[in-house]
Design goal:
The structure is a homodimer.
Chain A (H helix, E strand, L loop, with lengths): L10 E5 H18 L2 E2 L9 H9 L5 E3 L2 H9 L4 E7 L3 H10 L4 E6 L2 H13 L4 E6 L11 H12 L4 E7 L11 H24 L6 E4 L5 H4 L7 E2 L9 H6 L9 E10 L4 E4 L3 H4 L13 E2 L5 E6 L2 E5 L11 E5 L3 H5 L4 E6 L2 E7 L8
Parallel strand pairs in A: 1-16, 2-9, 3-4, 4-5, 5-6, 6-7, 7-8, 8-9
Antiparallel strand pairs in A: 1-10, 10-11, 10-15, 11-14, 12-15, 13-14, 16-17
Helix pairs in contact in A: 3-4, 4-5, 6-7
């Protein structure tokens, strides 16, 4: 096992002790609330971390893309929810093939999309489980709460589909200025979704699954009675945005980028060998502010080009060429997606190489 | 050959007619100025497009990372310039191995970095060609013009290195509000670098290579007497930023993202299945403005999450679920880096799959 000091940079390091603690803590929180934990594996896209999550009691995996579901199905995962409004006959055929070996559910948020899936399953004499995506305020996808019952009726009537329940993603929590505001979004997210589920049941429609949660809102949303499932993703790694949102402490961050200082400019500038092709250009949330924090330093990465991270050197700090730094990225999910593998480290040594599967398959 | 209509989305399409025209046009411009063209292959990271550039008369490839150079060397490319201040003994050992089969040059912008390369080559009884990176105003890496001669003297004295010349990258052209300003940066870039080279020669130091150029500044910089080489990258594809900068026409853009509308919201919102894991979060240059243009539409992609592109639907336009759209991305180089392969298309059919090599190897 190679010492971390011998690893070529830039490299994506996963502190395995922190990772395991994060996995265990969220699993325990879900258990204590009697809620099923279905981690969003888009964050890491690694078989090993997904297996860790399952071993800690997860009920299955959440994913966003058909190609991700195919990759995890190949790796042996048997319960997958695609929290995405998958549409079209070509994707429907792939879902049909997937559902041979996987207990599969898929999101729907409109009648046209639902019909495009139903036709393929109905023609094959099969049934696809679907959950209705409800927009609780993020205004990305999802049916408005007041329109949910009407859509649920129409979806429930489509042969080839079986309505299993409702789900949501309260992404607007990422814009909240304070942890109290995040908590408020989490409570409101759950309350709205539980209310929609109750309306469906009152109308005689099925709503056995009531699935909420992002990493920031999970602790608040899964505390609400009536919630059956929670789908946080980034909690396994955490990142600078989660610290800024108050979702975790800096020491709860498992994923860092190891980089080397390659140039030291004259005027308060240092440059590291991690740029936007390693750190991504995703902004810090909830308020933009640089492109990554240097651990143990006040200096921040001020701007990026593809292979350069330009550090604004804080007063009193200095960097030397060849020096190695650890960077806490703004957004862990997009960083992991930029590498072929993550390096699992413990006690200063690389303990495991974790291949990032289902990346690069943009379709 | 599959019709483009049957391709799963999101997919990265390369219009081969446009690509070939772009490759030919830049090659002809360099030829007409008597300047060597060394395309920066980080833009496409495909062997096939690099081969097309070489066939059109390129003198070699420019790359940014040791891992990229290794991938292109494996594919048989024999003249590579790493336009990056590579530092450290581990990278130096890899460069040494590379230089067995490749005519290799590497950038240096400081004495410490240069020493870290020199030691390995000197110990092996070998010599590494280096070019001094000069900062002509971008303020990223590079030695200031007034300090270049001093650094050149110290680098030239290091056993294990051979100083071949100077290079620069005028990235500040990407902030220019008008094409005239871009042209001014290009002229100034070349003038400064030619001046530095003359000062080196006056001092008896070698400066046989004087290497300039980005896609926006290339036509202006390579027109200057004394310039020997030009290293544009994104011209093979172009993108929305190049159109905005005035470097090309919309019809000169070869790389587009094929996406499917997956959701149509109530209030002027449509969502496509290309998000930041496909389009990247790189901003439009020179002025930020959305995350991609929909071809043939006035609507723009207003914001992204990982697998969602949220379209602000322009007045008078509408979208339906299942409809396919073509997106001109802000920045082609980071988009190609997010996919395992590009699809070369001609006359509505997929003519070639172009594997993106040297991606995911973040080190």
């Amino acid at each position: 096992m190679k010492p971390v000091d011998d690893v070529a940079t830039p490299a994506l390091l996963v502190d395995l002790d922190v990772l395991e603690a994060n996995v265990g803590r969220m699993a325990e929180a879900a258990r204590s609330h009697g809620v099923g934990l279905r981690p969003h594996a888009k964050t890491h896209k690694t078989v090993e971390i997904a297996a860790l999550q399952m071993a800690a009691g997860a009920v299955g995996l959440c994913l966003a893309k058909t190609s991700e579901a195919e990759a995890f199905a190949r790796a042996g995962f048997r319960d997958i929810f695609l929290a995405y409004p998958v549409v079209g006959a070509d994707k429907a055929r792939r879902l049909l093939a997937l559902s041979d070996s996987v207990r599969l559910s898929v999101g729907v948020d409109g009648e046209d999309g639902a019909r495009s899936l139903a036709a393929t399953f109905h023609a094959a004499g099969r049934t696809l489980d679907v959950l209705l995506e409800v927009d609780v305020g993020f205004h990305r996808v999802g049916v408005a709460p007041e329109a949910a019952l009407g859509l649920a009726r129409r979806v429930a009537e489509l042969p080839g589909l079986r309505l299993r329940g409702v789900f949501t993603f309260a992404g607007h929590a990422y814009s909240c200025p304070t942890p109290d505001d995040v908590a408020g979004v989490g409570r409101s997210e759950a309350q709205t979704l539980v209310g929609v589920a109750a309306a469906l049941r009152d109308a005689g429609l099925p709503a056995e699954e009531v699935s909420v949660g992002s990493t920031p809102t999970a602790p608040h949303a899964m505390a609400m009675a009536g919630v059956t499932e929670c789908r946080p993703g980034v909690y396994v790694f955490n990142d600078a945005s989660q610290v800024s949102l108050g979702s975790c402490r800096p020491e709860d961050c498992a994923l860092t980028v190891l980089a080397t200082v390659v140039s030291v400019g004259g005027s308060g500038r240092a440059v590291v060998d991690a740029g936007s092709k390693c750190l991504s250009s995703d902004p810090l949330r909830p308020r933009a502010g640089g492109h990554g924090w240097l651990l143990g330093r006040a200096s921040r990465i001020a701007w990026l080009s593809e292979e350069h991270g330009v550090v604004a050197v804080a007063e009193g700090e200095s960097f030397r060429v060849g020096e190695r730094v650890r960077i806490l990225p703004n957004h862990a999910c997009v960083v992991a997606n930029l590498a072929d593998r993550l390096l699992g480290v413990r006690s200063g040594r690389v303990e495991a190489e974790l291949p990032v599967v289902a990346r690069g398959h943009v379709e």
